[in-house]
Design a protein that fits this description.
CATH topology of the largest domain: Rossmann fold
Oligomer: single chain
Low-confidence stretches: none
Number of helices: 8
Helix content: 25-40%
CATH class of the largest domain: Alpha Beta
Structural class: alpha/beta
Number of strands: 10
Order of helices and strands: EEEHEEEHHHHEHEHEEH
Strand content: 15-25%
Number of domains: 2
Mean pLDDT: 89
């Protein structure tokens, strides 16, 4: 699904964040990315999204080199990015509205996009209901809680049926109960779909719960990231087990660069 080959990237004259960095992510896999602030976690996500471009090397998704944002990639950000003057329903349908303007050109929308208005309205209804915000569809962002706004942002992305979902700390500003609830929602969705997902997070427990594979940027050696398999991902019953806590402690030790 994703092939990162000898990626090099730096901002202006600063030292490279990545130098000959390589990574392979398979179709349908769920990945979490953790590391200290400034190590390049979000930058890697924006490179995968086609919003930033490598200084050298390449990124290929589904066999094609990424030179610009691709319509099949969904991106969920921490700050929601909702239009304050639009209702929940109009915000969720925003991407569909933009795609209809351009048509299925393969650049702004997939070439096989369904243009049937009834079908697209049904998709909006489905995700509003699936994420539990159907009764809020005529409300405005200012009338919503943070958790409801994030559900709206997630629905706006999923309604476009992406094959790759990128999330940049989407739950970090939420209270713990709401954050855990949305983590369960995304885990349930991942079990039902074949979508590939990559989430950037500072929260080690969130990484263990959401990432079947975890990419770890060490504090002492951020240029040499490690990949850890994580069989505990997506298991709510495992969250309070010794195995889960041991995995968190092990990742913390890698993150801090301690034995």
């Amino acid at each position: 699904m994703i092939e990162v080959n000898n990626l090099t990237f730096s901002y202006s004259e600063k030292s490279p964040l990545f130098s000959t960095f390589n990574l392979i992510i398979g179709q349908g896999e769920s990945w979490a990315v953790i590391g200290p602030s400034g190590c390049g976690k979000s930058t890697l996500l924006y490179l995968l999204a086609g919003l930033k471009h490598p200084s050298a090397g390449s990124i290929r998704i589904a066999g094609k080199e990424v030179t610009r944002p691709r319509p099949q990639t969904g991106l969920v950000l921490q700050d929601h990015g909702l239009l304050p003057w639009a209702t929940v329903r109009r915000n969720v349908a925003l991407g569909i509205t933009i795609r209809k303007f351009y048509g299925p050109d393969g650049i702004h929308a997939p070439p096989d996009m369904n243009m049937d208005p009834k079908a697209t309205e049904a998709q909006v209804d489905f995700w509003l209901d699936w994420l539990g915000i159907g009764d809020l569809q005529h409300s405005y962002p200012s009338q919503l809680s943070r958790g409801q706004r994030q559900r709206t942002a997630i629905a706006r992305t999923l309604v476009l049926a992406p094959d790759l979902l990128l999330m940049d700390e989407p739950f970090s500003a939420l209270d713990a109960p709401i954050r855990i609830e949305l983590q369960h929602v995304m885990t349930h969705f991942h079990r039902q779909s074949d979508m590939t997902s990559v989430i950037v997070t500072h929260d080690i427990e969130e990484a263990v719960f959401l990432g079947r594979k975890i990419l770890i940027f060490s504090r002492r050696d951020p240029m040499n990231a490690q990949v850890s398999d994580n069989p505990l991902a997506g298991q709510p019953e495992a969250r309070h087990t010794p195995d889960f806590q041991d995995q968190c402690h092990r990742l913390h030790a890698i993150l801090e660069g301690t034995p």
